[in-house]
From TrEMBL:
The lineage of its organism: Eukaryota, Sar, Stramenopiles, Oomycota, Peronosporomycetes. The keyword Transferase does not apply. Residues 21-33, 167-192, 203-224, 241-253 have a biased composition (Basic and acidic residues). Residues 1-67, 150-296 are annotated as: Disordered. The keyword Transmembrane applies. The chain crosses the membrane at residues 752-775, 801-823, 863-884, 896-921, 933-953, 1029-1046, 1058-1084. It comes from the Eukaryota. This is Tudor domain-containing protein. Keywords: Membrane, Transmembrane, Transmembrane helix.
C-alpha cells in the first residue's frame, strides 16, 4: 500500500540509498560535480529546475526541504513560489551554488526576512541593504524602513530585489513573451485606453486574438495585438502573496521542531498545496478559490451525490460511478441526464451536497442553467411566450444554449440562450385567462417572481408520476400511475405502469408532455382503510357554435366550437383569424367572457321608417366604453354606424349584449363570496347608521328645554347620577336639590345636532338605495347566469356615486362626534358628568354591544355617553369596510389579501381623527370650565381648524390609495376587455373621427391609459400629490402653528390631550416634508409626458 508521502505511487529503492541498522534511509555520498546527483542537494543549495512542459526552460531556485522519498521542495528565486515533490532528475546544481556569497555584495538592495518567531510581521519580506558579508554564508542587513541592523541573516532568507519596470517596458516585455491560448483569463486595453478583464475566445493565424468581455459575453473585442493583452496583475499578486504566506507558515512550523507524528501531518498539509502532484489524502476539508468547501479523496464513495465543476466554470450535480485512487479522479453520472457521464473529474472540482441543497436544489448554480427535461417558458420569433421542455444543452466557448421542444406542437427550437428562458412554476394556474370586467383576475404569481422560487418538478429516475395514455382497445385517453425508470434526452421517459398493489403491469415510453408528477401525502398508507366520500362537480362540454376562448399556455385566442368529441372531451376550434385546430383538450377551452371585440363579425338589426326589419352584415370597428359599438358594414363603401346598441347585434345567431358569469366553479364561487362580502358590508353599515340615527333623535328629544327646565326631571337625573355637591362649582339656589339648565345654554349645540340628523338621514337613505341597486343587479345576474353589459355599465356609475355618498356619510358621522363632545362639556359644567381628567373616546368604544338595537339608558347623560361610544365604534367599522370595498376593488381573493392593508389604513386615519377629536374636546372643556366662556371662542375655532386639517389629510390619503386601486383595476379590465390590444392604426382612425365623435374622445383616453401604464403608479401618485401641493403645504403649516398655539392653553396634567397634540404634530410635519419632496420630483416626471399631462390625472 502506498505511503502518504508518494501520493499513491510505489517507491523503488535507489542504488544511492542505503539502510542503516534502525531501518531509516541514509544518503550515500557522491561527488556531485556532475550536477545531476539524486541525493547531493542539501537545504539551502541553489539549483536550476527543469520545466514540466518546456524542458529547455530552467528556473533558478533554492532547496528548502528534502523528503524521505528523495524528492525536494524548492522555492523559486524570482517569483518566490514554492513547488513540492520535485524529482531529482529535474534538478541541476546552479553555477552560483559553489560561490553563494558572490550573489550579494555590500550595498546591494535586497529583500530579506528574519527568522520565524511565530509573528506574521517578522516573517514578511522586507526591504534591506547588505551591510556586511560573513564567511559562514550569512549577512548583516540594514532595514530600509526602521534603519535597524539585523545580523546573521541566512542566504536562504535573502532574494534579489527586482528593478521596477516602466509601463512602456512592461508592455514591451509582455509583447515579446506573450503567447495566449483559448480560454486564458487576461486583461486587455480597449480603444479608450482602459484595461478590462476578459477571456481569450479565438487565436488567429496573424498573431492577434479575439477577447470576450468577462462582464458581458456578448461583447467581443476582435483582432487585438499581443501588446494590448496582459496577464491579470491582481490574480498574480494574490497567488504570490499566498505562496509567500504558505512558505512562511512552513518555516514557522519547522522552527518549533514538532514530533514525528506532527511532522507527518505537516507533510500532509504541504502535499495539499502542491501544484504538480495529485492531491494528498487528508480527513478534513479545505476551501477552494471560490470559497466552496472541497472534498478530499478519503471522503468519496461510490454513488455519492456531489456537485462538480466543468472546464467552462459551470456547476453540475451527479453521482460517482467510478473512483481512480491512483489519479485521484472519478467518473460522474449527471443527475439530469443519466446517459451523460463526465470522465476523469479531478477531486479538486468536487463539492459536497448538503441536506438543504438536496431539498431546495442546486441554488449555487447558474440561475440561467437548466437541467434536461426541465419545463421552461421560451419566446418565439413573434415575441409570444410558450411552454416547452429542455431536450439538449450545448456549450460553445463557455456560453450555454438549449434545444427546446414545444409542449403542444412538438416543434424543436435550436440553441435558445439560457437568458431567454424562465422556469415554469409548479403551481398549475392558467394566468392568461381573463375574467369579467367586474371581477379582476387573481393576483398574478409570476409578477411576484414566484416562478424562480417554485420551479416545476424535473422528471427524474424513481419519481412517482401519472401518465396520460391512449387505450388501444377503446381509443380513449386515461391517466395511469407509474414510476420513471429512465429519462432520455429526447424529451421522453421510460415508465413502468403499476397497479394498486405495486405490481408492474407494463413498461412504456412516454413523452414528457404526457407526464405529471404525483404528489403523495406524508400519511400515505396509514389511512388506506378509511373510505372518504368524494364529490365530482359536473361539467358538460360546450355545444357547437359556442363562442369560446382557447389558451395555449401563454396567450388566449377567440374562436368558435365546430365539433365536440364527448368521449375524449376534445374540441375542434375555428379561430377568428381563420385557423382551425383539432383535438383541443377541454381544459384549454372556456366560454368567451366578451364576445364583442374589434373585428368580430356581427349581424345588425335595422328598423326602417315603415318599421320594416332588415339585417346587415358587418364587423365591429370600435367598442365604446358604454358598451355600444361602431359597426362597419361589409361592402365597398365601408359605411360605419358610430353608436350601435348591443341589443341590436347578433353574433352567430345569438344576442351579443350578455356575457357568461363564469366558466368554472372556482370563479362562480368567488363571485358568490364577493357578493356576500359586499352585501354584508352594506347591510352592517346601514344598520349601524340607522341605530345611531335613532339614538341621536332620542338625545335631541331629551335635551329639549321643557325637560331640562323641569325640576322633577332634573331632580331625578341628579339623583341617579349621584352628584357630589361639595365638588361642584355651581350650587342650587333656594334649597333646591338640582340645577335647571336654561334653554339658551344648549341652543347652539342642539341646532347642530338637528342639522346632523337631517343630513345623516338623507345620506343613509341614499346609501341604502345604492346598495340595494348594486346587490339586486348581481343577484339577478346569478339567477340568469349572465350579466347584462348595459346594466353593468350603469352599475359602475352607481358604484362611483355610492363611493362618494358613503364617504360624505362618514364625514358627517365624524362631525357629529364634535357635537357630542360639546354636549358632554356642557353637562359637566352642571356637574352631571363626573370630572374626568383624561376621557378617551377610543376606550369608550371598547365597551359597546355592536349588535344591540335598542339599549335602555337611565339618564340623558348616560344616553349621550352611549351614543358617543357607539358612534366612535361605528365610525371605525364603517371606515374599514369602506376602505376594503372601495379603496381596494377587485375579486374576493384580492380583497381577502387586502384586509391587512385596509386595517392599517383605517388605523392611521382613525388615529388622526381621534387625535383631533380629543384636542377639540379638551380645548372646549378648558374654555368652558376654567374660563367660563359659554360661546364659541378663538381657541375653539382653532381646534375646529385642526379638525379640518385632519379631515383633509384623511381624504387626501384615501383619494391617493383609491386612485391606486382603480389604476390596477383599470389595467385588469383593459386586458380582460382587449382594449389593450388596440393597434396604432385603429387609434389613428378613431382620432380622425372615422368611428364617430365618441370614439375620437375614447381614442385619446386609450392613449392616456397607455401612458399611465408606462409611467407606473408611483409616478402617477407623485403627480397627484403635486397637483395640490400648495393646499397641502399651507394646511400643514397652519396645522403646525395652531397645534403649538393650543398646546399652551391645555393643562400639562392632561396627558391624553398632549399625546393627541404630539401625534397630530408629527403627522403634519411628515406630510409637509413629503409634499415638498414629491413636488420637486414631480417637476422631473412632468417632462416625461408633457403632451398628455392635462388628461393623465383626470382619468
Amino acid at each position: 500500500m502506498a505511503s502518504d508521502g508518494d501520493g499513491g505511487k510505489k517507491r523503488s529503492s535507489s542504488p544511492n540509498v542505503a539502510k542503516d541498522s534502525s531501518g531509516r534511509e541514509k544518503e550515500a555520498k557522491r561527488d556531485g560535480n556532475d550536477g545531476q546527483s539524486s541525493s547531493g542537494f542539501a537545504v539551502g543549495d541553489r539549483v536550476r529546475v527543469q520545466g514540466t512542459s518546456d524542458k529547455s526552460k530552467k528556473l533558478e531556485a533554492t532547496v528548502t526541504r528534502k523528503h524521505m522519498s528523495g524528492e525536494y521542495t524548492v522555492e523559486y528565486v524570482e517569483s518566490g513560489k514554492t513547488e513540492k515533490y520535485v524529482k531529482a532528475e529535474r534538478l541541476e546544481r546552479s553555477k552560483e551554488s559553489s560561490e553563494k556569497v558572490s550573489g550579494f555584495a555590500e550595498g546591494d538592495s535586497v529583500l530579506y526576512r528574519r527568522k520565524s518567531t511565530g509573528s506574521e510581521a517578522e516573517t514578511a519580506w522586507r526591504d534591506g541593504v547588505v551591510k556586511a558579508c560573513r564567511s559562514d554564508d550569512s549577512f548583516d542587513m540594514v532595514d530600509v524602513d526602521t534603519e535597524e541592523v539585523v545580523r546573521k541573516v541566512s542566504s536562504t532568507n535573502l532574494k534579489k530585489k527586482k528593478a521596477k519596470k516602466t509601463k512602456k517596458e512592461d508592455e514591451k516585455g509582455d509583447d515579446k513573451e506573450a503567447s495566449w491560448s483559448v480560454d486564458d483569463r487576461v486583461e486587455f486595453k480597449n480603444e479608450d485606453g482602459e484595461w478590462i478583464q476578459g477571456r481569450i475566445s479565438k487565436r488567429r493565424n496573424d498573431g492577434t486574438y479575439d477577447v470576450v468581455h468577462e462582464s458581458d459575453e456578448d461583447l467581443i473585442e476582435r483582432k487585438l495585438a499581443s501588446r494590448q493583452i496582459c496577464a491579470r496583475k491582481s490574480t498574480k499578486k494574490k497567488q504570490t502573496k499566498k505562496s509567500e504566506s504558505e512558505h512562511e507558515s512552513e518555516e514557522s512550523v519547522r522552527k518549533r521542531k514538532p514530533s514525528k507524528r506532527k511532522e507527518g501531518s505537516e507533510d500532509d498539509e504541504e502535499d495539499d498545496d502542491s501544484t504538480d502532484r495529485p492531491r494528498k489524502r487528508r480527513p478534513n476539508q479545505r476551501r477552494g478559490g471560490n470559497g466552496r468547501a472541497r472534498l478530499q479523496f478519503p471522503q468519496l464513495r461510490l454513488h455519492q451525490l456531489i456537485d462538480f465543476e466543468d472546464d467552462g466554470g459551470k456547476w453540475h450535480r451527479g453521482r460517482i460511478k467510478l473512483l481512480r485512487k491512483d489519479e485521484e479522479t472519478c467518473d460522474i453520472e449527471h443527475e439530469s441526464d443519466t446517459e451523460t457521464i463526465s470522465k476523469r473529474v479531478s477531486v479538486v472540482a468536487l463539492r459536497p451536497v448538503s441536506v438543504l441543497a438536496r431539498v431546495w436544489g442546486n441554488r449555487a448554480a447558474d440561475p440561467n442553467a437548466y437541467q434536461l427535461n426541465a419545463r421552461v417558458f421560451y419566446r418565439t420569433k413573434e415575441g409570444d411566450e410558450r411552454k416547452g421542455f429542455v431536450i439538449k444543452a450545448w456549450r460553445d466557448k463557455g456560453a450555454v444554449t438549449y434545444d427546446i421542444e414545444d409542449e403542444i406542437e412538438g416543434d424543436v427550437i435550436k440553441r435558445v440562450p439560457g437568458s431567454k428562458l424562465r422556469p415554469v412554476p409548479w403551481i398549475n394556474i392558467n394566468y392568461s385567462l381573463p375574467t369579467l370586467p367586474s371581477l379582476p383576475p387573481l393576483p398574478s404569481l409570476p409578477a411576484w417572481n414566484f416562478g424562480s422560487f417554485m420551479p416545476s418538478t424535473i422528471l427524474r429516475k424513481g419519481m412517482n408520476v401519472r401518465v396520460r395514455r391512449r387505450m388501444s382497445a377503446t381509443g380513449r385517453i386515461q391517466w395511469e400511475d407509474g414510476v420513471i425508470v429512465r429519462t432520455k434526452s429526447d424529451a421522453t421517459c421510460i415508465v413502468e405502469l403499476r397497479g394498486p398493489d405495486g405490481e408492474v403491469r407494463d413498461k412504456i415510453q412516454v413523452k414528457n408532455a404526457d407526464i405529471r408528477p404525483k404528489f403523495t401525502s406524508p400519511f400515505t398508507g396509514m389511512l388506506d382503510g378509511l373510505q372518504l366520500p368524494t364529490l365530482q362537480l359536473p361539467r358538460g362540454l360546450y355545444p357547437p357554435k359556442s363562442a369560446v376562448e382557447v389558451s395555449d399556455g401563454s396567450n388566449v385566442y377567440m374562436g368558435t366550437v365546430v365539433t365536440v368529441n364527448e368521449a375524449e372531451r376534445l374540441y375542434t376550434i375555428l379561430y377568428n383569424d381563420g385557423r382551425k385546430e383539432k383535438n383541443v383538450p377541454a381544459d384549454r377551452v372556456r366560454l368567451s367572457l366578451r364576445r364583442l371585440r374589434i373585428g368580430t363579425e356581427v349581424e345588425m338589426i335595422v328598423e326602417g321608417p315603415c318599421k320594416e326589419v332588415s339585417q346587415l352584415d358587418g364587423e365591429v370597428a370600435w367598442v365604446h366604453r358604454d358598451e355600444k359599438v361602431a359597426v362597419r358594414i361589409n361592402g365597398g363603401n365601408n359605411d360605419v354606424f358610430a353608436e350601435v346598441c348591443t341589443h341590436a347585434l347578433m353574433v352567430d345567431g345569438q344576442p351579443a349584449f350578455s356575457a357568461p358569469l363564469s366558466s368554472t366553479w372556482f370563479e362562480l364561487c368567488g363571485f358568490y363570496l364577493n357578493l356576500s362580502l359586499e352585501a354584508f358590508s352594506f347591510i352592517w353599515f346601514v344598520f349601524g347608521m340607522t341605530v345611531e340615527l335613532g339614538e341621536m333623535i332620542r338625545v335631541l328629544n331629551e335635551t329639549s328645554p321643557t325637560r331640562l327646565e323641569d325640576a322633577s326631571v332634573m331632580d331625578a337625573m341628579y339623583t341617579q347620577r349621584n352628584v357630589n355637591w361639595t365638588e361642584c362649582a355651581r350650587q342650587p339656589s333656594n334649597g333646591a336639590s338640582s340645577l335647571l339648565i336654561p334653554a339658551a345654554f344648549l341652543s347652539i349645540d342642539r341646532s347642530w345636532l338637528m342639522a346632523m340628523i337631517i343630513i345623516k338621514a338623507v345620506l343613509v337613505v341614499c346609501c341604502a338605495g345604492f346598495a340595494f341597486r348594486l346587490v339586486h343587479s348581481k343577484i339577478m345576474a346569478i339567477q340568469d347566469n349572465f350579466i347584462d353589459l348595459k346594466e353593468y355599465q350603469q352599475d359602475r356609475v352607481l358604484r362611483r356615486y355610492f363611493h362618494r355618498v358613503m364617504g360624505v356619510t362618514l364625514l358627517v358621522a365624524y362631525l357629529a362626534l364634535l357635537v357630542y363632545a360639546a354636549l358632554l362639556n356642557r353637562f359637566e359644567s352642571y356637574c352631571l358628568v363626573q370630572p374626568v381628567e383624561e376621557m378617551r373616546f377610543d376606550q369608550l368604544a371598547l365597551h359597546v354591544d355592536m349588535f344591540a338595537v335598542h339599549t335602555h339608558y337611565p339618564t340623558t347623560v348616560d344616553l349621550l355617553l352611549g351614543l358617543t361610544a357607539k358612534s366612535v365604534f361605528n365610525l371605525f367599522r364603517a371606515t374599514a369596510l369602506y376602505v376594503l370595498v372601495f379603496t381596494f376593488p377587485g375579486g374576493f381573493l384580492r380583497r381577502v389579501l387586502c384586509v391587512a392593508p385596509s386595517v392599517a389604513l383605517t388605523a392611521l386615519m382613525s388615529a388622526m381623527g381621534i387625535a383631533s377629536l380629543h384636542i377639540f374636546y379638551y380645548v372646549h372643556r378648558t374654555e368652558l370650565l376654567d374660563d367660563g366662556i359659554t360661546t364659541l371662542s378663538t381657541q375653539v375655532d382653532y381646534a375646529v381648524v385642526l379638525v379640518f386639517v385632519s379631515i383633509w389629510f384623511n381624504s387626501s390619503l384615501n383619494r391617493l390609495l383609491t386612485a391606486t386601486g382603480n389604476y390596477f383595476e383599470t389595467i385588469s379590465e383593459r386586458h380582460a376587455n382587449a382594449r389593450g390590444d388596440l393597434t396604432d392604426d385603429i387609434l389613428d382612425q378613431a382620432e380622425r373621427g372615422e368611428f364617430g365623435l365618441q370614439a375620437k374622445h375614447e381614442a385619446l383616453m386609450a392613449r392616456v391609459e397607455l401612458r399611465q401604464e408606462q409611467l407606473g403608479i408611483c409616478k402617477l401618485s407623485v403627480l397627484r400629490i403635486q397637483r395640490q401641493f400648495l393646499i397641502h403645504i399651507v394646511l400643514m403649516i397652519v396645522g403646525i402653528c395652531v397645534n403649538e398655539a393650543l398646546r399652551q392653553d391645555v393643562p400639562s396634567d392632561d396627558s391624553t390631550a398632549h399625546a393627541a397634540f404630539t401625534l397630530h404634530l408629527v403627522v403634519c410635519i411628515v406630510w409637509l416634508v413629503q409634499s415638498i419632496l414629491t413636488s420637486l420630483y414631480a417637476l422631473v416626471v412632468k417632462r416625461e409626458a408633457p403632451e398628455l399631462l392635462t388628461y393623465i390625472l383626470d382619468m
